[in-house]
Amino acid sequence: MAKSNVDLICSVAELSGLFEKGTGLQSFLQKVVSVIAWHMKAAVCSVFMFDEDKQELVLTANQGLNPSAIGNLRMKLGEGIVGNALLELRPIIEGMSRNNPHFKYIPGIGEENFQAFLAVPILRGMIRVGVLAVQDPEPSYFDDNDAKALRAIASQLAGTIENAKLLMNLHGREEHATPQQEALPLDTKYLHGISGSTGIATGGSIIFDNILLDVTTETTLPAITMDDFNKALDLTEEQLNSFQKDMEERLADVASLIFSAHLLILRDAQFSGAMLKLIEQGTHPAIATSKVVEDFCRLFVDSNNTRLQEKVHDVRDLGSRILRNLLDKQNSMQDCNGGIIIAESLLPSDLVRMSAQKIGGIVLTSGGATAHLSILARSLALPMVIIHDKRLLKLPMNTPLIIDAEQGSLLIRPDAEVTKSFETLKEVKRRSLEIEDTMQPETQTSDGTAVKLLANVNLLSDLEVVHRLKAEGIGLYRTEFPFIVRNDFPSEEEQYRVYRKMLEGMPGREVVFRTLDVGGDKMLSYFQTGAEANPFLGLRAIRLSLRYRNIFAPQIRALLRAGAGCGLRIMFPMISSVDDLIEARNYVKECIAQLKDENVPHNNDPLLGVMIELPAAVELIEELAYEVDFMSIGSNDLVQYILAVDRTNEQIADLYMPHHPAVLRSLKRIADAALKFRKHLSICGDIAACKTMLPFLLGIGIRKISVDIRRLPQVQQIISSIDITQARAKAMSMLQCSRISEIQAIIDPDSSINPSKPI
Ligand code: PEP
Ligand code: MG
Q: Closest Cα to atom 1, ligand 1: which residue?
């Protein structure tokens, strides 16, 4: 029988199918190994999970060896072929396994007859998750194509397997008492905070940490049979799968297995199995559910593993869903039903999940309007405010609330009159979105000078607005968003699909893909590079990509593949020297050569550009302009780094001054260098949407403006009211000033220049 690796790789549906039909972690992994063995026609297939504490690999699922080896066969990191594949983070193919110096014979597991060996590490970024291995009696049975196939599968499965691993590690831990939380009264009607996104939401409160229904206080619980309980579990599973499908259609780039932790926990024998056991012993099914959920949460909270701690929310959310289905509390397909989530903090993946569950808005009680959560909330059209008042977490569930994310405020138990006026406001906002449809496809100043108006986007779902507003192109696609939102690194294949969709959605129009810009305030929960005292000055953006080639390579390869047959623009963030640029450019060339060797269709001549967002880049602007195809000014960072003012620190927001003379002169130097070397220059930071800064930007010669999509109509209007001759004169007089106060007087003595409120 011929191997069918291609079928195996292509058949993501099959893997999800395994996942859907699974009944527990063990059975899920067991099915994974049998599907791989079947498609590869291999006699043996194994999944080993890596136990970080003990630094050893444990055989967790297997087909073809003695079943008693499962759970008992352990190898140290670096021990045997399997241990070496994980140590060296590379696949190992052996025609005759005994010839490999690392081969280790293990008596009693029945591997005497197997000659060919292929072991592939399962990694999430740099995190060691485990090893996938196949063996066969036929010598040299596995080749490079098999290794590629297994690598693709390993990367698809990494997130799920890691979740499984975390759960397995958890079982058997000691239980600890939950620390008592202080209860605080709340007696206020109005709270003001920071605006995290836009929009207005009205709805009942859902306290994120107490999302579980408190059934222990119910005096009369309905009679529920074991059969009802099993039906509730089935319904829960059905709902989760349906959410997953819905997300995959709406938010293909971020939705990958977003409910995977829920599904895995649901089928964990120690979760639903423990509930069943309690019910058999006579506990009411609702109480049994509630008890097991709380036990699980305690284990998660007490674990030292931050990633496990993050899963508490998943467990509570899952428990709540089971209870609702069990008690028939409401039609659970829309169980958040416009409610307003109050949480101390949220992960980006929580936000995406909640959006699928139809929440109305979000109140956070800690943190600042950190760029990624706010940007994501905007892309998901979720009103969000940040109010530093922990008493909010003590609000009774379903307390009527209104979020006014435009103003950054929250109204608690509003009276009928107030609620009515906000409903009207919501309607007005909805209509103003319709007015946006009047946007013109081309932008000109009042004297007819053409300005290219482009959009900044973060998610594929933004394309809909880009089209609605007829943007001329995408001046900045922040590719880190699909990375930030997910629970694991997207594979090359997944990235390729996202980038291809982005390009297909913009035929003939420019799309600038900025390579991964994580670090600073945009952290990946699943990839920790070590604590940094100053993350904004740390391992961020291109520095991280150049340091971790196994993260950079899949992205560049995916971009090049997506750009096959069309124009492709790749931009590097945080470039600090010509050397950085050359290193990144050489890497792109290496990836092009690889794809050529592999005969994979790709773009072999992408335009390469840089973000100008560091003072060092301004100093080297002429040399950089000479080397690149295009440049874009990242003014959010440029202002931060020139003035040494943290862009996320609210306490010093008044010192964040885009109109500071040092910033203005830097902008002018960049514009002059672009002109001198005839290179395209755009600006994509928030000041590009700032009414008071736009005349200056046009005045120094910038003709490409890229702004948050939702600001396009207003920015178009502002540009159309600017006269270029006047703008030039204004810019020149601003450049002659050495004091901030003088510049302020020229711009507009009464206006405040706050790029976080650009219009
Ligand atoms: C900028 O720095 O201006 C920019 C556009 O990039 P980001 O806001 O994503 O850092
Ligand atoms: Mg930046």
A: 634
